[in-house]
Every structure is written in C-alpha cells, then in structure tokens.
Amino acid sequence: MQRRVTFDNRLLPYLLLAPQVAVTLVFFIWPAAQAIWQSVHLQDAFGIRSEFVWFENFTHVLGDPNYLDTLKVTIVFSVAVTVLAMGVALLLAVLADSKIKGARAYKTLLIWPYALAPAVAAVLWMFIFNPDIGSFGRALRALGYDWDYRLNGGQALVMVIMAASWKQVSYNFIFFLAGLQAIPRSVIEAASIDGAGPVRRFWTITFPLLSPTTFFLLVVDMVYAFFETFGTIHALTQGGPGKATETLIFRVYQDGVVNNDLGGSSAQSVILMVIVIALTAVQFRFVERKVHYA
Amino acid sequence: MLTRRKLALLTGAAATSALLFAAALPGAALAQQKTVVDFWHGLPQPLGGQLEQIVKDFNDSQQAVQVNASYKGSYPETMQAAIAAFRAGNAPHIVQMFEVGTATMMAAGPAVKPVYQLMQETGASFDANAYIPAVKGYYSSKDGKMMALPFNSSTAIMFYNKDAFQKAGLDPAKPPATWPELVDAAKKLKASGSSCPFTTSWPTWVQLEQLGAIHNTPFASQANGYGGLNAELKIDAPLYVKHVQTLIDMQKDGLFKYGGRDNKPDALFPSGECAMIQGSSSLRSRILKEATFAWGAAPLPYWPEFANNDPKNGIIGGAAFWVMTSPKRTPAEYKAVSQFFTYLAKPEVDAKWHMDTGYVPVTLKGIEIAKAQGYYEKNPGADVPAAQLTRTPTTENSMGLRLGNLPEIRNIIQEELEKAFQGQQDAKQALDASIKRGNTVLRNFERANKG
C-alpha cells in the first residue's frame, strides 16, 4: 500500500525542492560541467591561452602506462579497504552487541577514531610505522625484519590500506551496531530454541537481516576508498615509493594542483566520475536485488 | 526554546556589536587612505612569523602603505591559490613563489609584472647587480632583466656529525671534499657501527640539479632551458649515470640510506642516526636546535674527474616575490608595491633575515654586513652556503634551471630513483625513464605556453 502526499498549491513542492536543487546545481553540476569543459581543452596554468583539443587529454591519460598501473593500485586499494573496514567492523559490532562487561566502554572507544581527520590519523600511523622514528617500525627493524615503506612498495601499500580502513571501521561499526540492535530478539531466540548454534544463527538470520546496512556501507565505503583517502595517502606516502601507492584521486590532485596540468587532471576527474557512477549503478542494479529490507 | 530573557540578551548583544561596529568605522575609513597591498606567502612557522615581522616593520616605518601578509599553505598550495585568484580576476599584489615555479611564472606573460619594469615605471632605484650572481641569474630573463625580487634563498650543502667522525677514526676538521673521499668515509663510519653513514634530502635538487651546476654539466639542453621552451633533459650524461649508480651501490652496501622525498630525510641527521646529510642550508636552524652532538657544515663534494678539480658555484633554492597583475590594479598600488620592494632590497633587511633564519644572504652587501657583525666567527660554518654560491662566476650550467613544470619533473625523477633503489632498475635505466617522462612534461608545457 502506498500513501500519496498531495499538495494543494502547485508551486509549493517546487519551492520546497528549490534549496536542494540549488545546492546540487552549485556544488555538483556546475563543477562537474567545468571539469568536462576543461577536459577537452589544453590550457597554460594561468588560463591565458586555451585551445580546444577534442579528446586529446583522454587519449593521453589512457595511453599512459603509468595511469593503468595507478588504476590497478586503486582497485587493489579500494577492494582491500572496503573488505577490511567492513569485515573488522562487523566482527567488532557482533562482539560488542553480545552481553559482555563494559560493552558501553568498548563501543565508545571503537567510535573514537572516526572523529579524527584523515591527515591526523595518517600522522599517528606515521609515528607508529616510520622505520626511523615510529615505535612499531623501529621494533620491526630491531627484530631484523627489513621494514622500510619508503622503499618497499608492498609494505607501503599495506600500510596505507590499514590506515585508511582503520578510520572507516568506526563509521561502519556504528551502522552495524545499530543494524544489529534493530534485529528482533524474538527471532534469534526462536532459532536458539530450535537448536541453531551461534554461527548458524549469524549466517541465516543476522546477516540477511543486516543486508540493507551492509549494502549501504558497501556503497559508502567504496566511495570513501575512491575519494576520501586522499589525506591519508598524502600524509603517509605521497603516492610513493615509485608509484606504488598512487591512487586515481591522488593523481588527480598531483596533476591538477602540483603539476598545473588542468586538462589532464580534468580528464582524469571525468574518468573517475564515470567509474563511480557505473559502480554505484551496478551495485544498485545487481547487489540491491539480494538485499532484504525488513 | 527562546525565552524572553534570552531574547533580551540577544538584542542587547546585537545592539552592542552594532555600536562597536560603528565605533570601528572611523578607524576603517582611516585605513582606507593607506594603499593596501595583499601579499601571499608560503612559509610555515617559525619562518612565516619572522617574515610577517619584516612586513610589520615596513608598515610601521611609513604611513602610506599597508601590506597585508597572509599564509596560504605550502609553496605549491600558495602557487595554486595565486593561480586560482588570477583566474578569478582577484590576484594578490605580491606572491611568494618557490624557485621551481620560476619558469611557470615567466611563461605567464600578462599575469606577471616583471620587477625591473615595475621599478622603472614607478621611478624607484633598483640595482640588479646588488644581488649574488647565482641569485640574480636564477630570476633573470634571457636578456638579463630581473623578473622577480629574490628574497629567501638557500643552497644545498653537507652537514656531518663530528662525534661520529671521531669514533670512526676520521678527522672531524676535514670533511670529505670529493665523492671518492665521501665513499671512503662512509665505509669507515659503517665499520664503526653507524647504521646510516650518509643520506640526502631533496634527492633531485641536491643529487642531480646541484651536481650538474657544480660540475658545469647541463641538466637540460637550451642552457638548462634559459634558451627556450624546447629544452630537453640531458641527465643521461656520464656524470649523472656514474653518480646515481654510486648512490645505488652505496645503498646496497649499507653506506647510503634513502630517507624519502623532498625534505623528509631532514630528521635523520639531527637525531644522530645519519652521520652525513646533504640538504638545504636552511636545515641549519633545526640542527642547531635539536642536535646533541658536535657537527660541522661543508660544501657539497665533487667528482675530481668531472669537475677538473674546479667545482663551480651551486645553484639556489628557496623562493622569490612576484608581482601579479589584475584588471583592477591602479598605478598607486604598483607604487606601493615598489616602495615595499625597495625596503626589502635593503642590505640591512637582507642581512638580518639571513642571520635570523639561516637562509643565505641574497645581496653581496648583505654578506658584508653579516661579516662585519662577526656573525660567521660566532657561528662557524654559517658562511659555507654563501661561499659555495659565490665561489666562481656563474656559467650557463650553474645559473639555475628554467624548466616548465619543474616540480613535476622533480617528482618523476624521485619516483624513478625509488624504483632504482628498490632494485628494479639500474642508474642508466632510471635516468633514461626520467628523461622520457620528463620530456613529455616539457613538451606539454611548451605547447600550452607557446602562444
């Protein structure tokens, strides 16, 4: 059954929508249009000379082997961050939701990291993992393990993945916890009485009932990994060593802000925009079908 | 809920602030009569504060001009802010630009008012020859005209740990003057237990750009880009290959430690971990504050076979002040800028800045003043940067670099070096890859700026 809200005044609904539309236009559509315009132009840094170059910026970017490497790094990075952040958060949420002593304290502590700015979190990680001044980094070296993320690309990637996921765990944790608490106890108790163990209860009842939350977090975490991890990477590795931790969004910044290549940077933005639109569409089209809204 | 009491309080507060605002108005009107100059800089604390103090001194020294200094983030961020502001028709009067942005600013044409022209038009006296040749050369156009006002300049030198030298049986009064000597010293340091005999900050600037200048070897064609936008990188010359291969080999043998990009490795020296570091001369103040051991400063070493035992002057780093244009700029504002620049160009101001911060003096008279005040006797080694900068007349290869998008090229080289230090490629391959990628950057810059 659907309820329809009807307005007497024909103008009112538009008026009520107007602020949202205005915000969308100014902060989303306008910059996106600018990015598209710039992506087909070749400009000097100051915008004094501008030349229409069709899709040259795109062929340039896509023909660059380094760009394809960056794409690979981004995929590995995003998938790893999403899986890790969601997996750990779900585990912690299930544990915190069970009846244990000091559950409130655990919950509070687990939410804290979210209050940190990504760059601050990254600096904290640096103090832990830096091979020369970091506590853990020094310990690893003292144990004879050759830990140096400034020169070892694999180690650098693992480190930024951990730092980026760690921050997102808190966010996921809040949502999973809320989702878990919304599951009716009676259902779980009924399953217990029928003899289902904790693992079975989790996979047949809790997990399916959590699926709206999981789906929402999947979209949010993917977007987070793609767009909001810039601060972490910038503060920790700046894309290095070599290009081992350079993600697409970091390269957009690097080419646009540091290298003053607005055309190339805009072309990359447009590509990134297309990727994320496609990704979200796929998720809504295919994954959401399996989601069970209570 | 808004109670009546709260409402009364709010009204009261509003009335008071309105009154305060009215009271502030006459003062604001007074300030209006002064010509206001916006000045954006990229120096963090404590240097930023010291720069703002100079601005304040200038503001207090006269009545006509009010310079408003504001910090806009790091050098690249300041550059980006200035570019964005120019595009919006709102550029600041003066912007501090790091030395690698020089070619971009010079190619900016109508966005920039060259300093020589500004001084001429406003009738101010300005002598470009007052500056150290290496400084003047870096900021001069092809025909030798000063495009920006040099201010905070540094150069690359070496710092070494005298205690570690002593322990390794090396003479603390005799730092290595050549690269073979440095390698020997590093071996002895390692044998005495040092985990990091040698490291370098600013890998591209120190190990390639400075290296080329000192050995009078071009970094790029077209006189390092001074001759035109069609310059190409030349860092596959034997000097560079030999040098980079030496670093790679030293790293393998535990004699050299790669400490990261840009100035990240700075921390390794004052902490006592690395016994020798090559980096910016401005590292001095930090070492002074943090090091708990005896240390010394020395010029960068050279390769005897490439330098003919006659190493040239090093090149500068740091930043200069550029004058930007805007559609609504008035002659009075340019006049105000020129007044401020005349003040900054005074040797006393230069010498004070040098002694307060550790940047090199940019004027020849500035060095004289520091000498006359006994600064170098009280601070042994503080004269090394200026001495290295002025030791020979500048050549085509030691004047500086004039390459478009140099920050990008620096990063490319750092990336390729990192791949080499990881053992993925040798020196020749790293330099060839840098040339290939760097030339693409140069061609793009040429194309975007040709008109």
UniProtKB/TrEMBL annotation, chain A:
Asked if Plastid is a keyword of the record, the answer is: no
Tell me, in one coarse class, where this protein mainly resides. Answer: membrane
Domain ABC transmembrane type-1 positions: 71-283
Q: What PROSITE patterns does the entry give?
A: ABC_TM1 (PS50928)
Q: Quick check: keyword Repeat in the entry?
A: no
Family annotation (Gene3D superfamilies): MetI-like (1.10.3720.10)
TM segment ranges: 12-33, 75-96, 108-128, 156-180, 201-227, 267-287
Keyword field: Cell inner membrane, Cell membrane, Membrane, Transmembrane, Transmembrane helix, Transport
The way this protein sits in the membrane is described as:
Multi-pass membrane protein
Q: Where in the cell is it found?
A: Cell inner membrane; Cell membrane
Similarity comment text for this entry: Belongs to the binding-protein-dependent transport system permease family.
Subunit: The complex is composed of two ATP-binding proteins (UgpC), two transmembrane proteins (UgpA and UgpE) and a solute-binding protein (UgpB).
PANTHER family xref list: BLL4140 PROTEIN (PTHR43227), SN-GLYCEROL-3-PHOSPHATE TRANSPORT SYSTEM PERMEASE PROTEIN UGPA (PTHR43227:SF9)
| Physiological role | Part of the ABC transporter complex UgpBAEC involved in sn-glycerol-3-phosphate (G3P) import. Probably responsible for the translocation of the substrate across the membrane.
Q: What is this protein called?
A: sn-glycerol-3-phosphate transport system permease protein UgpA
UniProtKB/TrEMBL annotation, chain B:
Q: What InterPro entries does UniProt report for this protein, alphabetically?
A: Bact_solute-bd_prot1 (IPR050490), SBP (IPR006059), TAT_signal (IPR006311)
Say which domain of life the source belongs to: Bacteria
Location(s) in or outside the cell: Periplasm
Q: Which UniProt keywords apply?
A: Signal, Transport
Record's Pfam families? SBP_bac_8
- SUPFAM superfamilies, per this entry? Periplasmic binding protein-like II
Q: Please name the Gene3D superfamilies in this protein's record.
A: Periplasmic binding protein-like II (3.40.190.10)
**Signal peptide span per the entry?**
1-31
What this chain does, per the record? Part of the ABC transporter complex UgpBAEC involved in sn-glycerol-3-phosphate (G3P) import. Binds G3P.
Share what the entry says about its subunit structure, partners included: The complex is composed of two ATP-binding proteins (UgpC), two transmembrane proteins (UgpA and UgpE) and a solute-binding protein (UgpB).
Q: Which family does it belong to?
A: Belongs to the bacterial solute-binding protein 1 family.
Name under which the protein is recorded: sn-glycerol-3-phosphate-binding periplasmic protein UgpB
Q: Which organism is it from?
A: Azospirillum endophyticum
Q: Which gene encodes it?
A: ugpB
